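Researcher: Next entry in the queue.
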Amino acid sequence: MNSLTNEVVSAWIREAAGETAGNQRHNKRYPFFRPVTITIGESQATKHLAFARDIATKGIGLLHNLPLPTDRLLLSIPKAPIPTAEDHRIDVNIDITWCKPCAEGWYLSGGRFVGLAAKQLTSLILEVVSSELKRRVRQRYPFFRPMTLGVGDTHETRLPVFSRDISAGGIGLLHKLPVEPQRAKLTIQRPEADPLEIYTDIAWCQPCGEDWHLSGGRFMEKTLQLDELPDLHL
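Model: Structure for this entry, 234 residues:
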């Protein structure tokens, strides 16, 4: 991997690790990406599909295509990536504490759990931790950014994607269209600097909710040892 690629990946990891350690939160966040349902109003007539981004003992990060009021909402969280029955989901009240634009037509928000039973939260966290331990041995950090994925022989077909998490070995993505395993080019725009570009090998892709897909990209060579990261007290 060339020095520029190494520099970009290292910078992304440090940025994600720093946010995990001190993004106005005192408890650890876990990568937790899956489709969820938001219900607004006491009549429960207004429902919106959204995505969970990460989870902590006190709250959850969300992605959605409508701005949310800083109010109390009902959130339905599936216990599996694609819910199959009512007993496979957790319905919990959350207070939306902040909401901001993320990309064109998309918003990020943070919700604080209200009245969540300790047993429910413990079961949910254990499911997340167990899933992560089974899938990867490298530590992953929540890393949510709008990006562009260039696919095809010349990488000229550009798809809007979101990053989900990052490790020294690869990156998780969310996107509308399915992507075949291939070498692809990730581009992230920066307001006051040139875009950052990096190549990644898309290793897998699977459906996630209605018309959405998750995928995983692998960086070709080792870029950063975990002990090279600063002491983040995670």
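Model: The chain is about 15% helix and 50% strand.
Researcher: Noted, moving on.
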